[in-house]
Amino acid sequence: MGYVKDKFKAVADEQAKEIKNIIAEHGEMxxxxxxxxxxxxxxRGIPGLxxxxxxxxxxEGIRFRGYSIPELREKLPHAEGGSEPLPEGLFxxxxxxxxxxxxxxxxxxxxxxxRSHVPNHVFATIEALPVSTHPMTQFSIAVLAxxxxxxxxxxxxxxxxxxxxxxxxxxxxxxLIARLPRIAAYIYRRKYKNGEHIQxxxxxxxxxxxxxxxxxxxxSFAELMRLYLTIHSDHEGGNVSAHATHLVGSALSDPYxxxxxxxxxxxxxxxxxxxxxxxxxxxxLQENLGTLEPSKxxxxxxxxxxxAAGKVVPGYGHAVLRKTDPRxxxxxxxxxxxxxxxxxxxxxxxxxxxxxxxxxxxxKIKNPWPNVDAHSGALLKHxxxxxxxxxxxxxxxxRALGVLASLCWDxxxxxxxxxxxxxxxxxxxxxxxxxxATA
Length: 439
Ligand code: HAX
What we know:
This protein is mostly helical. It has 3 domains: 3-48, no CATH class; 54-273 and 391-411, Citrate Synthase, domain 1 (Orthogonal Bundle), CATH 1.10.580.10; 274-382, CATH 1.10.230.10. Helices cover 61% and strands 2% of the residues. The protein has a two-stranded antiparallel sheet with strand order 1-2. It starts with a helix and ends with a helix. The structure holds N-hydroxyamidocarboxymethyldethia coenzyme *A (HAX).
């Protein structure tokens, strides 16, 4: 076994013992009540999942194993000459609970580089799709095509003990993460660069190699990718992509199948596709007004028009967060250092100044503050990655780190198949009548 895998197994065994005790001693403790409104309205706030990799506080934002994003930017190892965290380090942290050393991170970079070869049939599968196919559809299909490589599926078919599930899921996780940048870059170059593909450079870290294969070899863009791939990785367990991966994985579908489910969820406009929608919305605003830097008054009017047309203002609002998303702030800080004069970046900042008050004044939007997707497009456009319908694929590559680390945990902790109870409205009506009769 590799030493990261050994370490994960040791930490997971300890945690499994801990959980056994918790269930034995406190298993009957009630966590919260569940209301009828929650059952109808997206199960908001119902504590019904265990996800070890990160925890979301509605006011403070995400913490990965207890570390906030500013702390991660400082504590996780950086690339030589860089100052942004390497996502390899975050993966190690999510998997083991410990901040990695430079050596740990280099070990993961090297492991992923070694495993990054994508079989030809995956490229052939992508090529079979019309070039016009949305990149997220191509990406999800490519992940499914790669499922032929699943060690878990093979081992399960041959017959393995439950105790070994985690091992094969771990192996699939490492291979899948290693190959995603190559697949994503292939889709990008196929769709937007006349199929002129760029071979991987095994000497680069995971993010810099991805940037290189996309066709961006400058230092500052590689730094953006390191930050981007770190901050989009995980947002505790209840969001659509994480929950879908976890749910499908609970049926013992292998990591490829489970991750593909997560990606089809990420492709929704209320979730990951919002990053594409945000930049389109901003560019429409610029186009309609005939200026790259509309005034705050013009922006305010445009927001009101968007709301009046019955549309959402993309990049704003969140099901859990109630303050500015620290992932937005991290990108804003990056932009202040690298491209403070970019007009689209400045427009993003001006939207941030006027949108919350307008959204709040509707009286119904619970969180008027920006989320992660409000900023990313402007940064990517600045560096020349202008094809916004590719943006959610970048998000997807990053999201693999969190949801697949969690899948390793799910199997290491022996979590069972997920099966919450559902009701019909007739059942709810009878329940209300019965409760009122006994009251
Ligand atoms: N613009 C306009 N209306 C909004 C809104 C926004 N940005 N955010 C919420 N609302 C509306 C909702 O549509 C809902 O309206 P109805 O009652 O008429 O149905 C009402 O306000 C209450 O919604 P909420 O409780 O505040 O928000 P939800 O938890 O239901 O939804 C969403 C959370 C993120 C889906 C929502 O805020 C939204 O649609 N935002 C815009 C899309 C977006 O940015 N999505 C990305 C979220 C982050 C993420 O997952 N990234 O991948």
